[in-house]
Amino acid sequence: MIGVWAGNNDDTPMVDVTGVDGAGPIWHDSMLLAGQGRPVTDFPIPGGGVQRTVSYPGMTTTDWY
Q1: Cα dist from 49 to 14, 24, 52, 60, whole Å
Q2: CA atoms of 62 and 59, how far apart (whole Å)
Q3: Domain locations in the chain?
Q4: Is the dihedral of CA 49, 51, 57, 58 positive or negative?
Q5: Which tens digit of pLDDT belongs to each residue from 15-43?
Q6: Cα separation of 65 and 48, whole Å?
Q7: Are 26 and 12 in contact (CB under 8 A)?
Q8: DSSP string covering 39-51, please?
C-alpha cells in the first residue's frame, strides 16, 4: 500500500501547491517504482459487472460498472 501526503508540518497552508503539484508527482513516481519488473495485466472484472457506453459533452467512454 502506498500513501502520499505533502504539506507543511506546522499546519500552515501550502503556497501555490495543490495535490496535482505536490503529492501527485510523488505518488506517480512511487507507483512506477513499485511496478517495475511486474507484468502489465488487466483488472479482473468482478461478478455482476456490466459494460456500458456513456456520452458526455465532447466525450464518449465505455467502462465497466
Answers
A1: 41, 29, 10, 19
A2: 10
A3: 1-65
A4: positive
A5: 988 878 888 999 999 999 999 999 999 88
A6: 9
A7: no
A8: PP-PPPPPTT--E
